[in-house]
Amino acid sequence: MAFVKGAWRILVAIKDGLVLLFLLLFFGALYAALSFSPKPAASIASGALLLDLDGSIVEQPAEVDTFSLLSGSAPQTKEYRLSDIVTALDAARDDAKVKAVVLNLDEFIGGGQVAIARVGKSLDAVRAAKKPVLAYATLYNDDSYQLAAHASEAWSDPLGGVAIMGRGGSNLYYKGLIEKLGVNTHVYRVGTYKSFVEPFIRADQSPEAKQANQALADTLWQNWQDDVAKARPKAKIAAYARDPVAAARAASGNMAKAALDAGLVDKLGDLSAFGARVAQVAGEASGDKAGDFAKIDFAAYVKARRPANDGQIGVLTVAGDIVDGEADPGTAAGDTISDLLLTALDEKDLKALVVRVDSPGGSVMASEKIRSAILKAKADGLPVVVSMGNVAASGGYWVSTPADMIFAEPDTITGSIGVFGIIPSFEGTLAKIGVTTDGVRTTPLSGQPDVAGGTTAEFDQIMQMGVEDIYRRFVGLVATARRKSPQQIDAIAQGRVWDGGNARQIGLVDRFGGLEDAIAEAARRAKIDPATARPYRIEKTPDKWAEWIEAMAQRNQDDAGAPRDMLARQAWVQRAWAMQAVADLKALVMGGGVRADCLECRGYGAPRAQAAQDTQGLLAMMARAWS
To answer: Is 121 a catalytic residue?
Structure first.
């Protein structure tokens, strides 16, 4: 009886806690609703259009669920849609109310080279319209400086500077740890350069993978320098990046002064001094806060100028990891994307289809499901044009094969035509603690794959033959699409990644160009005047309630976040090792099935909010385990 009473008290306590939580959330939302007074788009005053990019630029922002927003557990990393930034800047160019464009890059964490170059192109157009573009950061990194190079004035804090790291870095390799734990990693793959599995079976890169990765990094680094040099000719970027020690020594260790002397920035000053400078060209704010200036809110501005989603050129976005099943925007779920496209084909009078790909790949099954839906569009007589963003590799290239034409940029990472599968088994781990397995079988495949007792030779052979068969299918799809022989494609496949420039030379892409170029080409093929062609975005309708809650959360968010000094800032930015560990752990334990995925691509895309959230969860779990 005492046990029953105790259990009842626990249930009552849980019930009371849930009721209290609900009431707190309800009254918190009610208070936010009563205190929120959005500024109508029509009442936007003149001033500087402020792009306070405290997060990353992505092709398709991830959707955060309402409960996470209300409970405060949502990822802190914000995501800004690339097309929204381009829309706002293109409108600002000819808008008399916009006196200047201001970039606050203090907490900007990246966007990928293709996306940043596209924003830079719009910034150049604003400057060509005789409007100033002013950029500020305490400390610039590669991505933020690539944006700032397109500004007419680049400012840095006197205690900051410019830290140019270049392309490249380290991956984690787990062979030693796996052997110590007694884990047996069963790898099935095709492709000399298919290095996704190497962290689990090697202690370093294979010579082939290192050669390909070095070539890719060298090309992207040269393209980065060329973009910065063209945007800011006076910057001595090559010498500064080649010998940062000499630059620091010449300025007695003052990195802000070193950046100023090298022409990388124009002025040194704190945020208040920068604001006073903006006020000179854009007008002062109505308040009396020092360094404040007349601002035009980016979110309200782009919302008022975002084009209506009613065009005849369908634009299907495949962004993020390609996964089986369903998922929210920001992840390319096979069922979700195929259902969206098939529904649009049934309900909308589409004349052409543009597929915007920004994905390193993932599940073969999900990739094929998306490809099949795109083929349905072709069967309906729609021209299909693919536009590649930062990354369109492995599964990202698989879904691109139905295209009549493929557009990419010189900095696009593509190719990686190869497949693999990986399954861990823990018989060695269990043996270390005295646990063994035994049982009966009726066939060589009974109980396979046995993660506790290990796989059989027959299972391993079938898996490897299956992977080889899928690779042959992949090569065949590409050969048919690119009008080449399977032998010609196999020679440039084998899992190797290519930059957009080389990919064009070897025939994996057709032309250089962005999304706008792809839409114009699709319109021409559909006999529509490109000047009047309008896109119809094929994606999930945003949850208005979640949008409103997110706006409230951002409105009340404090400004504490990224550290500002060089050492702390670089340590904060270089959290990628933790994100990589999370991704690698998920790939090993949960990444079942045959995959067309690209390890090298993941360091070149935009940082994602979900990756940061997964990392926080892993670190919290480790902290609990060690406390």
So the answer is: no
Pairing, β 352-359 against β 384-393:
parallel
Triad 219, 224, 229: Cα angle to 5°: 125
Over residues 315-360, the pLDDT tens digits come to 999 999 999 999 999 999 999 999 999 999 999 999 999 999 999 9
Residue 395 carries which side chain, given as an amino acid letter? Answer: G
**Of 122, 387, 394, 400, catalytic:** 394
Q: Which of 129, 105, 131 is nearest to 116 (CA)?
A: 105
Residue 446 among the catalytic residues? no
Name the β-bridge partners of 29: none
CA distances from 361 to 419, 434, 600 (A): 10, 40, 11
Distance CA(68)–CA(617), nearest Å, equals 14
- For 182-226, the pLDDT digits (tens) are 999 999 999 888 888 999 999 999 999 999 999 999 999 999 999
Cα dihedral 190, 186, 466, 458 sign: positive
Query: For 408-418, how does the pLDDT look when each residue is reduced to its tens digit (9 = 90+)?
Result: 999 999 999 99
pLDDT at site 627:
37
Angstrom distance (rounded) from CA 332 to CA 392: 12
In this structure, the number of other CB atoms found within 10 A of the CB of residue 218 comes to 14
Cα–Cα distance, 418 to 325 (Å, whole number):
22
Residue pair 85/119 in contact by the 8 Å Cβ criterion: yes
Query: What is the crossing angle of helices 82-93 and 298-305, to 10°?
Result: 80
In the chain, % helix, strand, coil (3-state, to 5) comes to: 50, 20, 35
Structure tokens that stand for 506 in this block: 């070897």
- How much is the pLDDT for 107? 92
Q: Which of 131, 194, 351, 369 is labelled catalytic?
A: 194
